Amino acid sequence: DGLILADHRGCSAIFLPQVWDELPDSHDFVSHLLAKARIRPSYDWNDGEIDCQRYEVTAYAEY
């Protein structure tokens, strides 16, 4: 699945599901996504100020 993160300041980032191939560890995946969004890793996930959305994609190949 892909992941979208956004905080209350409007900082956000998205990773396509294919990024899991490069970052298979969930902690690494989220840490890199937080850095991309410029959200500090020490953010309190329980304060409700980060919106996290998961999504799926369908990949098609051209022949």
TrEMBL record:
Question: What lineage, starting at the top, does this entry show?
Answer: Bacteria, Bacillati, Bacillota, Clostridia, Lachnospirales
Q: Where would you find the membrane-spanning parts of this chain? A: none
Q: Which InterPro entries match?
A: AMMECR1_dom_sf, AMMECR1_domain
**UniProt superkingdom:** Bacteria
Q: Name one Pfam family in it.
A: AMMECR1
List the source organism. Agathobacter rectalis
Span of domain AMMECR1: 1-59
What protein does this entry describe? AMMECR1 domain-containing protein
